[in-house]
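Suppose a colleague, Dr. K., hands you the sequence of a protein chain of 155 amino acids and asks what its three-dimensional shape might be. Before reaching for any lab equipment, you can write down a predicted structure in C-alpha cell form. Begin with the sequence itself:
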Amino acid sequence: MEDDKNAARLPASRNKAATVSHRARVSAKMRRALELMAYSGLDVREAGRQAGMDPDSAVRAFRKKHVKDAYFQMVRELRDNAAQRAFARIEILSKTAASEHVRLEASKWVAGVDGVAPVKRVEGKFSHEYSFNPFDYGEPPVDVTPETAEDVIED
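The predicted structure, expressed as C-alpha cells, is then:
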C-alpha cells in the first residue's frame, strides 16, 4: 500500500506506467499471438488460432491500443536487431558451412562489410588477325564477259 502512494508521487519520468519502453500487459496467449505475427508474418486470426485463442477474440484484442503498442514494440525490436543477427549468421556460415562455395561467398561478404574488396575475376582477351594478300599475276585480268547478247555463241 505504501508503494502505491510513493508511485503516485513520483514524477512522470520515473513512474513505470508512464515510461515509453514499458511493455504493455497482455495475456500469455495474446503475447504468443503477437510474437507469431511479428516473427512469422501471420495475420491476427491465424496467429490467435495458433496461440490457442478464438480468432475473433484475437481480432478484438488487437484493436486495443496497448496490444497494438506491444506488437509494434516487438516489431521495432526485431528490426533494430536484424542487421546484427544477419551479420552474425553470415559470419558463422563463413566458418562452419558444409559447402566450400557458401563459406567462400560468406567470407567475401564479411570482408566487403569491413571494406576489403574481393578479387575481381580477371579475363584475358586474345585476338588474332588474318589477312589475305591476293596473288599478283603481273597483268590485269582479262574480262571475257560478252558486251551484247548477240555476241553470245549459241550451240
